[in-house]
Design goal:
Elements (H helix, E strand, L loop, with lengths): L1 H22 L1 H9 L2 H20 L7 H5 L8 H24 L2 H7 L8 H14 L2 H7 L3 H25 L3 H26 L9 H35 L2 H10 L4 H23 L3 H38 L7 H7 L2 H17 L4 H24 L3 H26 L11 H23 L5 H22 L5 H18 L6 H15 L2
Length: 517
């Protein structure tokens, strides 16, 4: 199972990495072609669209992971209900924006987007209605196809938006390009559902719809409250500050796409795996699987966190120009979400496998969101921009720690199980050593340009981090053997300067014989 999970994660992570590479250039181009006020308006527009896509459907599409394996006789019922629910939710949202354009001013505190209400209504409708494509494809077991669809849809989206930014960098052009992208995605969704679930639109099953609602709505409410924790601060800032200041804040809240690429990919393959183990009543195996996943993520996230804490000023300057250097304090606080992503990736699959505890989670998050609203109202009323991100991150820390403690009780994790997580502490120590080395190098090369500082600090952190990981004994014997085999294979393939290539091949065979069970 571990090998299968790894392959699926690689498929999805690779596809999303390509998608990130395709889309990463868009804000970097716009930040150089739009004024701060226009860029702030652009960020507000897509904040609204992304919030609608993630919150309004209440996570209903995620019920596919639970019900498709349990409805092998007629999976079209599950697919039809998901498509219908998203269509209704997207349509009602679009109609609300058409009927009451003033909602945009009420939500964002400004009237700049009201003039674009009709275009935004169609865009939100299409975005919500078509957001099920990737989820249903993965839940149906077609991970490789899902990876290809991700690359294809992001390629089209990037080309359209970059074309609009190049030809006519304006909000109207960006809305038109995004709308065209989702129209093409709607056609792709119709093709997929029709080919995988023939005549799915004729198999309406209202008892199944009720069952899916009963499963998805509590989880969706918890997810909606979680997203509120992550997005609500942006709306408070948008209402309390002008668009130029909001642009500074939005850059400081820049979310590293790599984190969400990895987290989404891991979550997509962990959810069905944890569901299977829960059906087989193997909570101990769930704990071991979660521990392995957290160890893998920690190996990536901890050094990234340490490096950005040291070089965050240069990172922001290189990506968004000197005009946004004032975003650094906000960005520094926002970086706390990087290690928290490990707990998020660990908790979500377990929550979906144990829906009985969702109601308790909803109550916890209602209290936290209420506290967050009070905190945001206080800090924005005093025009303390940094306070908004402090409140958001503080509430997120409390949420992740509380949910982790709850799920540890559900899985009956004891003190004896801490040995499964010891490598995470070692990886944190190794990242701290690497960060200290990078900080020293940053002082030594302080007079160089931002790119030179980034490169020098990254080299120092990487060298010290890898050495510390090896010295602390984090890699297992199997991992060390795999690294040796790969190194020998690379030398055999590309080491034409070796005197006796045949000896290298013999060495590879010897290593395989020695370390393979």
């Amino acid at each position: 199972m571990r090998a299968t999970l790894a392959r699926r994660v690689v498929w999805l992570a690779s596809a999303k990495a390509v998608a990130f590479g395709l889309g990463f250039a868009l804000p970097l181009i716009l930040v150089r072609s739009l004024s701060q006020a226009e860029f702030g308006l652009y960020k507000q527009m897509f904040l609204l669209v992304n919030t609608a896509m993630t919150i309004l459907p209440l996570g209903f599409a995620m019920s596919a992971f639970y019900f498709l394996p349990r409805c092998q006789d007629a999976p079209g019922r599950v697919a039809f209900n998901i498509a219908l629910f998203h269509l209704i939710v997207g349509g009602l949202t679009g109609l609300a924006l058409l009927a009451c354009p003033g909602l945009l001013a009420m939500i964002l505190g400004g009237h700049e987007l009201v003039a674009h209400a009709h275009g935004l209504a169609l865009l939100v409708f299409l975005a919500v209605a078509t957001s099920v494509l990737e989820i249903v494809t993965v839940a149906n077991g077609e991970v490789a196809l899902a990876a290809r669809l991700i690359v294809a849809t992001y390629l089209v989206k990037t080309l359209l938006l970059l074309g609009a930014a190049w030809l006519a960098p304006s909000i109207e052009a960006l809305i038109t390009a995004a709308t065209l992208n989702y129209l093409l995605q709607a056609a792709l969704l119709a093709w997929y559902l029709g080919s995988r679930f023939p005549r799915f639109w004729t198999v309406a099953d209202w008892p199944m719809m009720r069952a899916q609602l009963g499963y998805a709505l509590p989880l969706g409410a918890a997810a909606m409250l979680s997203m509120a924790q992550l997005d609500l601060h942006s709306y408070f800032v948008a209402r309390s500050f002008d668009t130029a200041t909001f642009a500074i804040y939005a850059v400081g809240c820049f979310q590293l796409p790599l984190l969400y690429i990895v987290n989404d990919s891991v979550g997509a393959v962990m959810i069905p795996a944890v569901n299977r183990l829960q059906l087989e009543n193997q909570p101990r195996e769930i704990v071991r699987l979660v521990a392995r996943m957290m160890r893998t993520l920690a190996a990536l996230y901890f050094p990234l966190y340490a490096g950005l804490l040291v070089t965050g000023r240069e990172f922001v300057t290189v990506l968004f120009t000197e005009s946004y250097r004032g975003s650094w304090p906000i960005f520094a606080v926002n970086l706390t979400l990087i290690p928290l992503c490990i707990l998020t990736a660990a908790c979500d699959p377990v929550l979906r496998a144990y829906p009985a505890y969702t109601s308790l989670l909803v109550r916890i998050r209602v209290v936290l969101v209420a506290a967050m609203v009070v905190g945001l109202w206080v800090v924005t009323a005093r025009h303390w921009l940094l306070g908004a991100i402090v409140v958001m991150v503080g509430v997120s820390v409390i949420d992740r720690l509380t949910v982790s403690a709850l799920l540890a009780r559900v899985l009956e994790v004891s003190w004896r199980d801490l040995v499964l997580f010891r490598d995470i502490a070692k990886l944190a120590a190794a990242a701290a050593f690497g960060g200290a080395a990078a900080a020293l190098v940053r002082v030594l090369v302080a007079g160089a340009g931002p790119l030179a500082v980034l490169a020098a600090c990254a080299a120092a952190l990487g060298t010290v981090y890898v050495a510390s990981v090896a010295a602390l004994g984090v890699p297992t014997a199997a991992e060390r053997a795999a690294l040796r085999r790969r190194a020998l294979a690379v030398l055999l393939r590309f080491g034409s300067d070796l005197r006796e290539p045949a000896l290298g091949e013999v060495a590879v065979r010897r290593e395989r014989t020695r370390f393979e069970p």
